[in-house]
Design brief:
single chain, 2 domains, 4-stranded antiparallel beta sheet, alpha/beta, 47% helix, Aspartate Aminotransferase, domain 2, 487 residues, binds pyridoxal-5'-phosphate, Aspartate Aminotransferase, domain 1, 17 strands
Length: 487
């Protein structure tokens, strides 16, 4: 089918403009509405302040590495050891990504095939289970063909694998669904125990973690979070894990970029202290959507069998983009970027406090600022929707000991990775805090039929909305997204 070009591309256009225009013309010739939605998504991201803590803006090189024929290749196995023919180029790409990941994070082993953060965690869980659980019995069963397993063998497998305990951070304290919570398979696979934050300070109390670990004696101790706004001392966690005989896993999905950029070193470097580390590649690390596992050499063989154990065939096009992103994250500019993410979050927290907004834990030591919106009489859902209507994209989030549940919530999670990629600094964080505070002040819940404040509906004064939207647009006008791309 012949591609439909919407506008002529000037001869002075940047390579990125030429590439994305041509790509969208080709997509548009096949299915115009998909190309339109892709164009509109760029317009949306350009016209709203992106403050979602788990999102970022990947480089054009990362994005373009995914849009090609590598996607057509099956490559089960690992470099040099594939179950499919014709994997030479995938081998070269995957080997490079693994080498880059190992050197960037100082890891003994890296597995770059996980399709997402959840998948990386599943690979890690199975690796730990098969390594730790009654190894001799499992080895005997593993050596058998699955068709030869007797009813007693199955019973033994289920009993051994299904009766293990994991301990992670409570969901409302900042933990993630995959750390043992019922809606995720981890909560069905493992018995679950949690540690939480101090009810007064909302900070992790390591003595409490130690006490809980001694009581529960989990097989797997997990540190890592989706919404905890502080750094974590992984040296102490490892001591606790060693004391109770647990394998120590860190899910650094959110803060991998801060580890890569050497903001988190020494006691705060998870790779140095954990037996196994999982991550996403698309949040602070600023790569393609995907996952990764880093581990000690003794877990490497099991981790490398992630596919077909729990994963489908690798995504070679995404692995190519991971290699590009890992190379980018190895450059000195990335260390500056990572430092600025954290400086910006601290500046944003301080500016919000000066606007009388309640900041959970009173500050931030990473890329997240967690806000309690109850003093405004709002739920997180109302605050999120009101802000989005005023040009600010962020997400509602539970706060510690939240009584509003995970749908309505009492908080907002605000992240600085994306606006830092745009080049914003402390002055812009003060402006963002002023925009957010002005919208929260001008938003009020409506009443339900029974006269109670609604958890979802609200009113926002028109003038406040228009003013906030104008301020957000001004900021974005000064820090444009992908200025090199003209669609
Ligand atoms: N782990 C943590 C700590 C996360 O915050 C997330 C995503 O929000 C994940 C895992 C899952 O990542 P993905 O959405 O790529 O599966």
């Amino acid at each position: 089918m012949k591609a439909q070009t919407t506008t002529a591309t000037p001869s002075t256009a940047s390579p990125e403009t030429i590439a994305f225009r041509a790509a969208l013309d080709v997509v548009g010739a096949a299915l115009p509405e998909v190309a339109d939605s892709i164009r509109q998504e760029l317009a949306d991201q350009r016209s709203h302040l992106k403050l979602i803590a788990s999102e970022n803006f990947a480089s054009p090189a990362v994005l373009l590495a995914m849009g090609n024929w590598l996607s057509d290749k099956y490559a089960e196995g690992s470099p040099g050891h594939r179950f499919y023919a014709g994997c030479d180029n995938v081998d070269a790409i995957e080997s490079r990504a693994v080498e880059l990941a190992k050197s960037l994070f100082g890891a003994q082993h890296a597995y770059v095939q996980a399709h997402s953060g959840i998948d990386a965690n599943l690979v890690a869980f199975w690796a730990v289970l098969t390594h730790r659980v009654e190894a001799p019995e499992l080895e005997r069963l593993n050596a058998k063909d699955v068709r030869d397993l007797s009813a007693e063998d199955w019973e033994l497998l289920r009993r051994k694998l299904g009766s293990q305990k994991m301990m992670g951070m409570a969901l409302d304290a900042g933990g993630h669904l995959t750390h043992g919570f019922r809606p995720n398979v981890s909560g069905k696979l493992f018995e679950y125990a949690s540690y939480t934050v101090d009810p007064q300070t909302n900070l992790l109390d390591y003595d409490q973690v130690r006490k809980r670990a001694r009581e529960e004696r989990p097989l797997l101790l997990i540190a890592g979070y989706s919404s905890y706004p502080r750094k974590i001392n992984f040296r102490i966690f490892r001591e606790i894990a060693d004391e109770v005989g647990a394998t120590f896993m860190v899910d650094m999905a959110h803060f991998a970029g801060l580890v890569a950029g050497k903001v988190y070193t020494g006691d705060f470097d998870p790779v140095r202290h954990a037996h196994i580390v999982t991550t996403t590649t698309h949040k602070t690390l600023r790569g393609p959507r995907g996952g990764m596992v880093l581990c000690d050499a003794d877990l490497a063989d099991t981790v490398d069998r992630g596919c077909p154990l729990v994963l489908g065939g690798p995504l070679p096009h995404v692995i190519a983009a991971k290699a590009v992103a890992l190379h980018e994250a190895s450059q000195p500019e990335f260390a500056t970027y990572a430092r600025r993410i954290v400086e910006n979050a601290a500046a944003l927290a301080e500016a919000l406090l000066s606007q009388d907004v309640t900041v959970v834990t009173g500050g931030s030591e990473n890329h997240i600022v967690l806000v309690d919106v109850r003093p405004f009489g709002l739920t997180g859902r109302q605050a999120e929707t009101a802000l989005r209507s005023a040009g600010v994209t962020l997400n509602r989030n539970v706060i510690p000991y939240d009584t509003n549940g995970s749908w309505y919530t009492s908080g907002l999670r605000i992240g600085t990775p994306a606006v830092t990629t745009l080049g914003m600094g402390a002055a812009e964080m003060r402006e963002i805090a002023a925009i957010i505070a002005s919208v929260l002040r001008a938003t009020a819940p409506t009443k339900t039929a029974s006269g109670k404040p609604s958890l979802a509906n609200y009113t926002l004064e028109d003038s406040a909305r228009a003013q906030a939207e104008g301020r957000a647009r001004d900021l974005l006008g000064r820090f444009p997204l992908y200025p090199e791309i003209e669609l």
